[in-house]
């Protein structure tokens, strides 16, 4: 009996994954910008949260979670620390968190992506799955934002225009 070694080629580099994620973040930022300020904080459809609250959730997840992964610190998820009153506050914090993401993402070694991490003390998955969750969650909420914009009579940006 003979055995055959299989060589696995990497599908995507960590730099490409970060670029992909930041492309989504760029698009979500544009969605935030498109909302009239009052509607950003008050408008909703079908009992869902206003888009400002969804944006705060996204801001509260990605940067703090990556910091926790890098520093091996498990902290509970909290949206209460950031309570914006204006669209500009949200956009400013979004930009700050973009830099936090870049800083911490680039400190995660290739090997760490396969390690299990207990995100916010709730979700025990490999680091790469946690990062994919951050992206998936953003896409989900941005879809809600697209729905809100359309309900307000505002044409959202094309979903593929991420840069």
From TrEMBL:
InterPro entries: DinB, DinB/YfiT-like. GO terms for molecular function: metal ion binding. A divalent metal cation binds at residue 141. Keywords: Metal-binding. The keyword Metal-binding applies. Belongs to the DinB family. This is Damage-inducible protein DinB. It comes from Chryseobacterium aquaeductus.
